[in-house]
Structure formats: structure tokens, C-alpha cells
Design brief:
Arc Repressor Mutant, subunit A; Beta-Lactamase; 5 strands; elongated; alpha+beta; 53% helix; 2 domains; 251 residues
Length: 251
């Protein structure tokens, strides 16, 4: 797809499941064939938040995801720390410069060594602009094997503005689409009950509206809290809303 066709596609796609493979294919056309998108809505000055609450989309291998994300290695990644303080796009040349100047910390060196092992060494990172103070979203674009950083920088010099635009629009679309974190998805009834709580209804009101007993409504709300790993129903409403799991239009 050309740029206009792709932007039309992004604007009209109905699901992340449809958007993400198409986005990976579009970026591969520019030479960046391994993508890793992450968004946290619970970022603080001392924590990235619970990784199970992140919106994670990637076509990297399971071995890479397990080693980088699930082991916690991501929290020391130099480009991620750059993204915590900056917006826009940055070349991974920055990492080799830090390596040459011996300014990488021991933990950052572990990330460097892991990425070297997995051949994730050439590319760009984009940090997206977000209005929420506790939100942060980043995408890494890893170049195809055989491409050097000089070549990747040349690609960016020619096409970077378009690549950045497409990733920005894809990111904004992802934020607007339902996302079920692994093991934290809600059932239709749980979403409906939380939706009525968000509308200000009492448990008794919800029981009448849903045609259930009050005890059954309380069970749905309890299971929703457990699924979302929160303590209160108010927190469950907030987290479900952030992931667009409430007021979902059923297929």
C-alpha cells in the first residue's frame, strides 16, 4: 500500500488483530521487519508498571520476548530509558556510541549482549507523544538482517518522515481499539457489569438492568477485579476503560 492507502486502512481497521500484521508488513517494506510496540498507562518515576498491564504487540520471536520482556531485561534497555525522557525518533547508533564511550551500566551491557546474541542491533526507536502523565508508548523498529546502521540511517533520511507518520497513526488507532491483556480479559457479562458501574448504577440497579440477582452481579464484579488484578471496582472500571474493554461493540 502507498502512504495514502495505508493511512486510510489504519483509519478504518476494526481490530488490533487486523492492524498489527498489516503494520508489520508495511514497515518491512522499508527494511524494518521486526517490531516491538509497548504502551504502559501506569508508568511512574520509579516504575514502568506491571508488565502484565502493558499493551504489547510484536512479531519478534518467543525466545526474544521471553528474554527481553518476561525476564525484566527491558527495564534496563538504553533506548527505553532514552524514551522515558524524550519524544520522537532516535537511531540505535546511540547504543554503539555509548558502548564505545564505555558509558553503559552493567545492566545496560546485559541488554546489549542479549540483543547482540539475538541480532537485534540495527534500527530506530520512536517514543510517542501522550497527554496522560502516567502513560508512555514506544515502538522499536529492528532492521532486516544484513542492513547496517549506516544503511538504516540512510533509509530514515529518505523515508523517516513517512515511517514516523504511519507509526503515529497506528499508535493512535491501537489506543482506540479493544485490547485484552494476556490472562486479564473480561467476559461479556463482566464488561457489562463494569459498564453499568461506570454509568453510576448501584449493584441493585445493575441486577435489575441485567436480569440477574444482586449476588450474581457481585460475583461478576469480583471476578472482573480478579481478572484485572485490582482491589476495588473503581480500579477495575479505570483499567478496563484504559484498555477499551468496556462498551465494546460485539461482532
Amino acid at each position: 500500500m502507498n502512504l495514502r492507502e495505508y493511512l486510510h486502512f489504519l483509519s478504518n481497521t476494526d481490530s488490533i488483530e487486523e492492524l498489527w500484521p498489516a503494520h508489520c508488513e508495511q514497515m518491512a517494506g522499508y527494511g524494518f521487519d521486526r517490531l516491538f510496540y509497548g504502551c504502559s498507562r501506569f508508568h511512574t518515576k520509579t516504575s514502568f508498571g506491571d508488565p502484565e498491564d502493558f499493551t504489547i504487540l510484536t512479531n519478534q520471536s518467543k525466545e526474544y520476548v521471553d528474554g527481553f520482556l518476561h525476564s525484566g531485561l527491558f527495564s534496563h534497555a538504553p533506548m527505553l530509558h532514552w524514551a522515558m525522557e524524550n519524544e520522537g525518533a532516535a537511531s540505535w547508533r546511540m547504543i554503539s556510541q555509548m558502548m564505545a564511550s564505555q558509558t553503559l551500566t552493567p545492566d545496560q551491557r546485559r541488554v546489549y549482549d542479549f540483543n547482540q546474541k539475538m541480532n537485534v542491533t540495527v534500527g530506530y526507536t520512536i517514543c510517542f507523544k501522550l497527554a496522560a502523565a502516567r502513560a508512555r508508548a514506544v515502538i522499536s523498529l529492528c532492521a532486516k538482517e544484513g542492513i547496517t546502521q549506516d544503511q538504516a540511517d540512510a533509509i530514515w533520511a529518505q523515508h523517516g518522515a513517512d515511517i514516523h507518520l504511519m507509526n503515529n497513526i497506528a499508535h493512535m488507532r491501537i489506543l482506540s481499539l479493544p485490547y485484552d491483556p494476556p490472562n486479564r480479559g473480561l467476559t461479556k457479562r463482566q464488561r457489562e457489569a463494569l459498564g453499568w458501574v461506570g454509568d453510576g448504577k448501584t449493584t441493585q440497579d445493575i441486577a435489575l438492568l441485567m436480569g440477574l440477582t444482586k449476588a450474581t452481579v457481585e460475583k461478576h464484579l469480583r471476578l472482573a477485579r480478579e481478572s484485572l488484578s485490582v482491589e476495588t471496582t473503581a480500579q477495575a472500571v479505570l483499567k478496563a476503560a484504559m484498555h477499551n474493554q468496556m462498551f465494546v461493540v460485539e461482532a
